[in-house]
Amino acid sequence: DGGITQSPKYLFRKEGQNVTLSCEQNLNHDAMYWYRQDPGQGLRLIYYSQIVNDFQKGDIAEGYSVSREKKESFPLTVTSAQKNPTAFYLCASSIDLRSTGELFFGEGSRLTVL
Amino acid sequence: AQSVTQPDIHITVSEGASLELRCNYSYGATPYLFWYVQSPGQGLQLLLKYFSGDTLVQGIKGFEAEFKRSQSSFNLRKPSVHWSDAAEYFCAVGARGGYQKVTFGTGTKLQVIP
Questions:
Q1: What is the mean pLDDT of residues B46-74?
Q2: What's the pLDDT band for B101 if we cut at 50, 70, 90?
Q3: In this structure, what DSSP letter does residue A52 have?
Q4: For residues B54 and B13, is the Cβ–Cβ distance under 8 A?
Q5: Regarding beta strands B3-5 and A104-105, do their DSSP bridges make them parallel or antiparallel, or are they unpaired?
Q6: In chain B, count of helices (H) and strands (E)?
Q7: What is the residue-wise DSSP string for B64-103?
Q8: Pair A36, A89: CB distance under 8 Å
């Protein structure tokens, strides 16, 4: 079955450490996204990418980095510069950036900073 | 810039009762509109979407939504709620033309009581 796989589902980090969240899709979608979800705040866009080796900052990119070396993969690194990284992170994809906006989501990764 | 307001943070309904979740949007033209559902600890699943045409849209799981341009609203309805409908519901708006950035509301958490 086609879909989006995020790993790990749960991740714990000590302050000062970088962590990388994995996102893989087999939907053959061009566009991929990372969202952050905090209680009562909905989803906020961190980064998005239309094609390999190209990505753009979203609304809250500070303290995060991404790469898009393969069409299927869009990993997110939460760096030590992110001051409040504890959150639920969602990866999504769509056919392309100029499509009708329908997003397909992974099951999320919950990051907790100890 | 587009925005979405979901005025109800939390709603409780009895099983078998009808449901209406409110969504108001702000956008300069006719937007793309979506409702997504999220079970605890999971990703988001698309319930329904409006692009154009008939303003009453049918979705999965017996949900429907009506686009009312004059009220800038896209309320979600279900005639008879089941216990399995307990989840968080997000309204979202996408811009037409150019990059289809999707903006999410803050969500409405639905509790279903016996």
A1: 94
A2: confident
A3: T
A4: no
A5: unpaired
A6: 0, 12
A7: EEEEEGGGTEEEEEESS--GGG-EEEEEEEE-SSSS--EE
A8: yes
CB-based contact, A108 to chain B, within 8 Å: yes
Given this model, what pLDDT does residue B52 score?
A: 85
Residue-wise DSSP of A62-106 = TTEEE--SBTTB--EEE-TT-S---EEEEEEEES-TTS----EE-
Chain A positions in Cβ-Cβ contact with residue B101 (cut-off 8 Å): 45, 101
Chain B residues contacting A via beta carbons under 8 Å: 9, 32, 34, 36, 41-46, 49, 51, 90, 92, 94-95, 98-102, 104-107
Q: Which residues of chain A have pLDDT under 70?
A: 1, 97-101
| Average predicted confidence (pLDDT) for chain B | 92
Percent of chain B with pLDDT over 70: 96
* Residues A88 and A6 sit within 8 Å (Cβ to Cβ): no
pLDDT of residue A100: 67
